[in-house]
Every structure is written in C-alpha cells, then in structure tokens.
Amino acid sequence: MGKQDRQFRDSQRAGRYVSQPTGYRAFVPAALPPDPPLEISADLNVLLSQANLALGRLDGSIQTLPDPDLFVYMYVRKEAVLSSQIEGTQSSLQDVLAAEAKILTPDRPRDVDEVVNYVSAMNEGLARLAELPISVRLIREIHAKLLEGVRGSHLTPGELRTSQNWIGPAGCTLDEAIFIPPPPHEVAQHLAELERFLHSDSQLPLLVKIGLAHAQFETIHPFLDGNGRVGRLLITLLLCERSVLVKPVLYLSYYFKRHRQAYYDHLQSIRDEGTWERWLTFFMHGVLEVSQQATDTAREILELRESHRRAITDNLGRAAGNGYRVLEHLYEHPIVSVNDVKGLIRTTYPAANELVANLVQIGILQEFTGRTRNRRFRYEEYVQLFHDTEN
Ligand SMILES: Nc1ncnc2c1ncn2[C@@H]1O[C@H](COP(=O)(O)OP(=O)(O)OP(=O)(O)O)[C@@H](O)[C@H]1O
C-alpha cells in the first residue's frame, strides 16, 4: 500500500467527517475496536505490563490497610477536585473539605458545589455497580447527579443532547470549532455501540479497553456539558467494576491536568489520523505514574497513622482510647469541631474540649478558622499528603 493510501486509511480509522445538511462537517466515529486492528508494539506492551503491575501494587497496598474504606475518602475528593479543575473550576481540596464540614466563608468559591457533586456522582455510581453494569443508563444517572443544581444544570442533566455541540475556544461559533462531535440523532446509537464494546469478550487487555472507551466517549460527547468529567469518572468506575481496583483510589485526573494540552491533542489526533496507539501510550504512562504515586500516598498514610497512634499512647494516658477513636474518625472527616468530638466519644463538652486541646498539643489537630467561637480543627498532616499533587 502506498504512503497516501495508508494516510487515507488511517485518517478513517477512528471515523470520518460527514457533511451535514446545514453545511458543517461533524465527526462520525467508527465502532470500537479500531480497524485496522491495534498494533501493540513491544514498547507499548512493556508499558502496559508496567501499568498493570503498578495498579496491582496500588490495589494490594489499599487492601492491606486495616480499614480500606477509611482511607479512600481523600482519594475520591482529590480525583473530584482535579477532574473538575481541568477546565474552569477553581475550588481546591481545602474548599471541598470546608464545604463538607459546613463551614461557610464569604470567600468560598461558588463552584465548590460542582466538586461536591462529583464526589456524590462517583459514590453513587460505585454503589449502583452492585445492581447495574456500566451502561448508557448508568452514565445518564451519573450525569444527572453531576449537574444537579450547578454549572450547566440548565443543560438537561441526565439527558442525551438533542442539538449539535462543538469543542473550541470559549464562546467560539460552530464555524470556528476545533471539533464537531456526531450529530444529535446519532448519539444514542454510538453510545449503544460503546456499551456493546465494553461488554464484548474481545481479547484486548482491560487497560487498553478502558483507554479506548474514554477517548471514544469524549468523541461522542453525548451531553451538552460535563462530558470531560463523566468520561473521567467512567475510567474509575470501569477499574472498580472489573475488580482491577477494589476501591476508587486512582486520581488519574492529576496526570490529565498536568498534561492538559497533550491530553486534548491526543484525543484530536485519534480522530484526524487514527493514532490510537499513541493515545494508549500516553494513557498507560498516566496510569503507571499515578498508580505509583497513589501507592506512595497509601504508605505515607499508614506511617502517619502509626506515628500518631504512638504519640497518643505516649501522651494521652487514660484518654488514649478516646484519642484513637478521634484519630480514626479524622481519616474520613479531617475537619472536626469540639461538638463533633463530644458526639463521637459521648462525653461532656469540657472533656471533649480537653481532648481536642491535647490533640492540638501533640500536633495532630490544628485550629484553622482563627475564631474563638465555632472553632474548627483540621488534621493538617493528613490533608497535606494529598496537597502536593493538587496544583
Ligand atoms: N479537541 C479537544 N479539545 C479539548 N477537549 C477535548 C477535545 N476533545 C475532547 N475533549 C474532551 O472534552 C472535555 C470537555 O467537554 P465538556 O466541556 O462537555 O466537559 P466538562 O466536564 O464540562 O468540561 P471539562 O472537562 O473541561 O471540565 C475535555 O475535558 C476533554 O475530555
């Protein structure tokens, strides 16, 4: 086959641009898997094994934690913050923790609710997996949750789009678009094909399947808003559904955010040049890098917990038992008030106040509102473990 023929064939591999009656050209994706079939080079194969190993190690390190659920809390919030930050949302992890602890500050970013919704969408999606496979129906439910009452909520949450959308610089017109996804009447059909691919017993390695599925989802762009976030949620849900991870602890959005332009460019060149393998290489690098980092985080959490348990044993005397209870609680609720502690250990206000003062004294908690009433205390070192990779 000549060079030009090959170029033409590759440009049609992921789909084709089709002229629409009103004059513009929309991209109509071809069903997965790619045809001509993927060529998994020796290098990509090595990377795939490394990514698989790193994911396995991450999964193992979470499962050996004394109470895995306790430690998942921050991973989910971190992924939610990063995925929402890729474009637009300004909220940080600290803002989300404060919002969840119901701390109202005048400078609270308005878009923090978006991240809180992302957390709910992730948790509900994971819970639904017990009853429902990953399907168009589940994706729509997740979308509805994600957009409930926030940015884009006027854009039909949970409903597939019925008009043409496009991707390009903010406020650009259809004529100026970088990319025009398939016309609205085809969306349901392309999503159904994607669902079939996900449930087919093709021999492709699971990570390859997930990488292909994410890119295909972004190409279909089935909603008027939130496509990026739903597509990234889909990655985590697939990893959990297929039991690659027992818990949602991979914050891959960290990688997409850091390499945002490359992320967008890869998605675009799949469509224009059929470069599925290049995208998969980029994707596997991300899985590898973030898995290793998340495994380190799990080890650091364990070490922190050990050292703080020791500090409690050494300093709290008879109150040590209550100290351990508060410490465990902090992994799921890193911000507490004296009243929270009072309720947790069922004691009097003065006793809870004293315990909190002791925990401040030994460096576990820190008051951060600067107020004398309604004080709030944060488990600072724990929150900091997740902070480094945020910005
Ligand atoms: N050529 C492209 N340029 C930019 N983004 C693209 C491109 N192709 C696909 N995308 C995907 O589209 C997403 C943006 O779509 P949309 O605005 O509907 O999603 P969102 O979740 O509301 O936004 P965002 O991901 O930007 O926060 C990007 O995150 C990316 O995943």
From TrEMBL:
Coiled coil: none annotated. The keyword Lyase does not apply. It comes from the Eukaryota. GO terms for molecular function: ATP binding; nucleotidyltransferase activity. InterPro entries: Fic/DOC_N, Fido, Fido-like_dom_sf, Fido_containing, SoFic-like. The active site is at H221. Keywords: ATP-binding, Nucleotide-binding, Nucleotidyltransferase, Transferase. ATP binds at D225, G226, N227, G228, R229, V230, G231, R232, Y263, Y264. Residues 134-285 form the Fido domain. Gene3D superfamilies: Fido-like domain (1.10.3290.10). PANTHER family: FIDO DOMAIN-CONTAINING PROTEIN, FIDO DOMAIN-CONTAINING PROTEIN DDB_G0283145. This is Protein adenylyltransferase SoFic (AMPylato r SoFic). It comes from Cladocopium goreaui.
